[in-house]
User: What shape does this take?
Amino acid sequence: MFPTPRCLAAKAPGFFKKSTGELSRLARIALNAEAISTPTKPYPLLDFSDPAATASCKTMADRAVGGFSTAQLDFIPATATDPAHTRFHGTISTKLPNNWRVERTGYAAFRNRDRGFWLLGRLYWDADPYAYLALRVKSDGRRYMVNLQTESVVETDIHQHRLYTRHHRVYQPPPLGEGDEGRYGALSDIPPAETIISTATTTGSSGSGWETILLPFHSFVRTNYGMIVEPQQSLIKQKIKSIGIGLIDRVEGPYDLRIHRIWATNGMSEEEVEEERSICGENALGVDEGVRTLWGSKRDAHGKEGSHTQRKEEEEIGKRKKGLEGLKGEWEQ
Assistant: This one.
């Protein structure tokens, strides 16, 4: 990948900026007492509306072993119809190089670079209080994978999850080679039925194409060099080193994935809904019930509100002050 002038101009944050950013984030957590309650606000991880986020990522492809696939990552400024975002694009080729050691090609990916250090050591993302990894994307329907790497005993371990979107295409996967049965066995190639849209429906859709995908952290699968390994271990959410997206469907041809931002969340909050609707249109997610009631309501299995007393309790929860003032009020009761 050859950097464009825009990418060269947008530098990744340095040590001082990383330290001040992390200190300010921890200060907000302490002031709002988020450590003793379930957070309702999103935790930004990669915001590609900022050119620096694109500059802080790197691309990978089979060209590193002599293959012919390409991978590019470009910052796209905001337009009347799209927010500022990054574009992950290129071509996939399964052509083998003149190297008998290379038996398989046809992949491309990107991820953020090492986050470096701050005042208290190595810098990680701590997503422990959050249930979902959220991605706002515009997909061409190919079989992308979301990759998370954490601090672990086996450094090359990666936790993966399929990026199913509303624009999945159904195609005949290439035949598996010898020894491939276990490589993708637990990560199904077949998207869920509710995500499949016919070509006619997709072509005639009036939506923007943007959508927000919520991936449960507990659903990520531990892999090593593309193979699912046992025993499966839970993702260490406190020490996330890198986030990336890869394409390993080995279907020759161009690909194009747009990413607006990636964040950790416990569901869509009221504050996020306005942006969600303005960008995603008819594909926008609604407010998550857990966020709306601060996980304090008592609802039945159908999501209906309970008795008058329960509704009153919910209203009292919503009126409670946050942060130190809220704690002080509890102590004085």
About this structure: The chain has two domains: 5-292, 296-333. Helices lie at 5-9, 15-31, 51-55, 199-204, 270-280, 289-292, 308-319, 323-332. The chain is about 20% helix and 25% strand. The two ends are 61 Å apart (CA to CA).
